[in-house]
Amino acid sequence: MTWLITGGAGYIGAHVVRAMTEAGERAVVYDDLSTGIAERLPADVPLVRGSTLDAELVARTLAEHEISGVVHLAAKKQVGESVDRPLHYYRENVEGLRVLLEAVTAAEVPSFLFSSSAAVYGMPDVDLVTEETPCVPMSPYGETKLAGEWLVRATGKATGLSTASLRYFNVAGAATPELADTGVFNLIPMVFEKLTEGAPPRIFGDDYATPDGTCVRDYIHVVDLAEAHVAVARALSSAPGRDLTLNIGRGEGVSVREMIDRINAVTGYDRPPTVTPRRPGDPARVVASAERIATELGWQAKYDVQDMITSAWEGWVHHHPEAARD
What we know:
GO terms for molecular function: UDP-glucose 4-epimerase activity. Its EC number is 5.1.3.2. It comes from Streptomyces monashensis. It holds the Pfam family Epimerase. This protein is an alpha/beta fold and 326 residues long. It has two domains: 2-171 and 219-248, Rossmann fold; 173-218 and 251-323, UDP-galactose 4-epimerase, domain 1 (Alpha-Beta Complex), CATH 3.90.25.10. The chain has helices at 11-22, 55-64, 79-84, 86-106, 140-159, 187-197, 222-238, 256-267, 291-297, 305-319, and strands at 2-6, 26-31, 47-49, 69-72, 111-117, 162-168, 170-172, 202-204, 216-221, 243-248, 253-255, 274-276, 285-286. The chain has a seven-stranded parallel β-sheet, sandwiched between helices. Strands 7, 9, 11 and 13 form a four-stranded mixed β-sheet that branches. Helix 5 (140-159) links the parallel strand 5 (111-117) and strand 6 (162-168). Helix 1 crosses helix 7, helix 4 (86-106) packs parallel to helix 5 (140-159) and helix 6 packs across helix 8 (256-267). 48% of the residues are buried.
């Protein structure tokens, strides 16, 4: 099969491209390069530069490359920015998806995999979040992901398109230093940045109802996440009309304080964190149940938190050589 991977030059996207091609699938990347980096891609993977809002270019790409499945990763994903720019997020994430689905169904592409997020759950008051946990998103970003799931599912029911929505938890790590996350929006790179600057890492609130008072999250290695995409893509292509909604996580919670302690140990820095006030909307605990994908597809995560931190640090040093410790 030939898979069109939108957002394939991004951090997660490049790992999905790598996993797909290593599994013997053909990949074509569609990316506007607003945050993606073309150099992340193998030389033999075609890159079409454009927006999913460009209906003509999307349709032409599907036809010219004889696309037989789509992995839709392209999206705006900063929670805080989505609060300030909700119209922009709905346009990019929901209207962009609608345009893409319209082209996909017109071209009779049979399979569609949608990148969703644990942000659809909001502040779940449960120990483990299952796919049946009520979705109450707390930001326009989370709303656009939930609306995207609805749109994908409805399109599948109406047209016979095989669909899947993957709800990612906290993605970290790197397959190689070159593919590492270059953004500073998630906890691990945020801590790396502070350590490199000679500043203490920040904890946003230490008075939560958790064992050490800091937020607890479920972290998934980006390589495991990419392998999950391969498993789901193949499941869709082998079962016409299938509809899947799956958590992608490890089912293990790690607190912010524990994560910072581990990062200090891996990096060789020994800089205690400073505690600042809570950020609005941060739930105390969000940890996935990954039982459904294990039962239905036989997938489970292979890498642990230590692997994530170590590979992420190697990537950070690759992109920031001044951060290396003697």
